[in-house]
From TrEMBL:
Binding site for Mn(2+): 165, 235, 250
Oligomer status and interactors: Homodimer, forms a heterotetramer with a Cas2 homodimer.
Lineage start: Bacteria, Pseudomonadati, Pseudomonadota, Betaproteobacteria, Neisseriales
Keywords: Antiviral defense, DNA-binding, Endonuclease, Hydrolase, Magnesium, Manganese, Metal-binding, Nuclease
Purpose: CRISPR (clustered regularly interspaced short palindromic repeat), is an adaptive immune system that provides protection against mobile genetic elements (viruses, transposable elements and conjugative plasmids). CRISPR clusters contain spacers, sequences complementary to antecedent mobile elements, and target invading nucleic acids. CRISPR clusters are transcribed and processed into CRISPR RNA (crRNA). Acts as a dsDNA endonuclease. Involved in the integration of spacer DNA into the CRISPR cassette.
Name this protein carries in UniProt: CRISPR-associated endonuclease Cas1
Superkingdom: Bacteria
BP GO terms, sorted: defense response to virus; maintenance of CRISPR repeat elements
Family statement: Belongs to the CRISPR-associated endonuclease Cas1 family.
GO molecular function: DNA binding; DNA endonuclease activity; hydrolase activity; metal ion binding
Enzyme class at the top of the EC tree: hydrolase
Pfam families: Cas_Cas1 (PF01867)
C-alpha cells in the first residue's frame, strides 16, 4: 500500500546495509530489521544513521528515495535516481511561476486552505473547552482568522498575502496552548509563539517533527505527479528549498497540530519524552519519536471524505490527490463551460 512504504530509521548509530534484495538495519552486531526493497519507495533517516555505499547505489537504481533529516527532523539531504517527471508539466509549471496572476491566485488558495483548517482546530477547541476563559480566547482567535480570510480576496500582491498569512499564524499559535489540558500546560506551552531552528519548547519541538513528516510526504506526492518541488508560488524560490512542497504542506499543518494535541492530551507523550540541548534547543527522545511515527502512520490510514471526491480516501493519500489537482491547474485545464480550473485546497471538516 502507498501508505506503508516509507521506512523511518530513528535509533542513533543504526547502520543500514544491502543484503541481496533486502535492506538490513543493524545496531552494533545485531540485525534489528530486514525489509525487502520492493516494499519501499522512501527511506527516512533521523540523525546519526550510517549507510553503506552499495545500499545507496541500489536505492537510487530502484527509484527509492533516501531522505536524511537531523535530530530535530529538519531536512538535510535527499538522494534519488534519475528524475522521471513529466517534462511538459514542469515546463508549464515554470511558465506559470512567471505569471503574476496565476502565482497570486494559487498562493492565495494555499493560504486560504491553511487558515480555514487551523480555524477549524480553534473552533473545535472552543466547543470542547472546559472553562469560559479558554472558550472566549479560542473564539476570539477563530474570529481573528475569519477576518484574515475575509481579507484574502482583496490582496493584490504576494508580500501583502504573506503578511496576512503571518498575522493569522501569530493569532493561531498564540491560542494553541489553550487546547492542551490545563494540568499539562506547564510542560507543553508556546509562551514565545512558534519557534524553530531549533525549537525552544516541547510543543514546538513536536510540531516541527510532525511538519517534517508531512513535508516529506508532500514532496514525494509532487514528484510522483511530475511537478518540480523546487518551484513554488507562495514560498519564495531559494537554492535548495522545496518551495512547492512547502506550499502544498500549508493545508496539512492543521493535521499535524491535531495529532500533536492528541498525543499530549492522551498522555502518549510526556515531558520526560523530550530532551533539552545546550543552547536551549528541545527535541524528541528516540523512543518518543517511535511513538509519534506509529501514531502518524495510523492517522494516515484513517479515511476522510475529500470535498471533491465521491468516495472516502485515506488521509495519507490526500497529498497525492492535491498534487494532481495542482497539476491540473498548472496545465490550464478547463471546466466543460470553458472556465479555467484553479487550485482547490484540501479543507478539513
Amino acid at each position: 500500500m502507498e501508505l506503508l512504504n516509507t521506512l523511518y530509521v530513528t535509533t542513533p548509530e543504526s547502520y543500514l546495509r544491502l543484503d541481496n534484495d533486502t535492506l538490513r538495519v543493524m545496531l552494533e552486531d545485531d540485525t534489528r530489521l530486514r525489509v525487502p526493497l520492493h516494499h519501499l519507495n522512501t527511506v527516512v533517516c533521523f540523525g546519526r544513521i550510517g549507510l553503506s555505499v552499495p545500499l545507496m547505489h541500489r536505492l537510487a537504481q530502484e527509484g527509492i528515495a533516501l531522505v536524511l533529516l537531523d535530530d530535530h527532523g529538519r531536512f538535510m539531504a535527499r538522494l534519488e535516481g534519475p528524475v522521471s517527471g513529466n517534462v511538459l508539466l514542469r515546463q508549464a509549471q515554470h511558465r506559470q511561476a512567471l505569471d503574476a496572476a496565476f502565482t497570486l491566485d494559487t498562493a492565495r488558495a494555499c493560504v486560504a486552505g491553511k487558515i480555514k483548517n487551523t480555524r477549524q482546530v480553534l473552533m473545535r477547541g472552543a466547543r470542547e473547552a472546559k472553562s469560559d476563559e479558554d472558550r472566549a480566547a479560542l473564539s476570539r482567535a477563530a474570529d481573528d482568522l475569519a477576518a484574515s480570510l475575509r481579507a484574502l480576496p482583496g490582496v493584490a500582491d504576494l508580500d501583502t498575502l504573506r503578511g496576512v498569512e503571518g498575522e493569522a499564524a501569530r493569532q493561531y499559535f498564540g491560542a494553541l496552548s489553550r487546547l492542551v489540558k490545563p494540568d499539562l500546560r506547564a510542560s507543553f506551552n508556546m509562551s514565545d509563539g512558534r519557534n524553530r531552528r531549533p525549537p525552544r519548547d516541547r510543543l514546538n519541538a513536536l510540531l516541527s517533527f510532525l511538519y517534517s513528516l508531512w513535508m516529506n510526504d508532500c514532496r514525494s506526492a509532487l514528484e510522483a505527479t511530475g511537478l518540480d518541488p523546487q518551484v513554488g508560488f507562495l514560498h519564495a524560490l531559494r537554492p535548495g528549498r522545496a518551495a512547492l512542497a512547502l506550499d502544498l504542506m500549508e493545508e496539512f499543518r492543521a493535521q499535524a497540530d491535531r495529532l500533536a494535541l492528541t498525543l499530549i492530551n492522551r498522555g502518549q507523550l510526556r515531558a520526560v519524552d523530550f530532551q533539552e540541548r545546550e543552547g536551549g534547543g528541545v527535541l524528541l527522545a528516540t523512543e518518543a519519536r517511535k511513538t509519534v511515527l506509529v501514531a502518524f502512520q495510523e492517522r494516515k490510514k484513517e479515511e476522510i471524505q475529500h470535498p471533491l471526491l465521491t468516495q472516502p480516501v485515506a488521509l495519507g493519500l490526500v497529498p497525492l490527490v492535491q498534487a494532481r489537482l495542482l497539476a491540473r491547474a498548472v496545465r490550464g485545464e478547463s471546466e466543460p463551460d470553458g472556465q479555467r480550473l484553479g487550485y482547490v485546497p484540501f479543507i478539513t471538516r
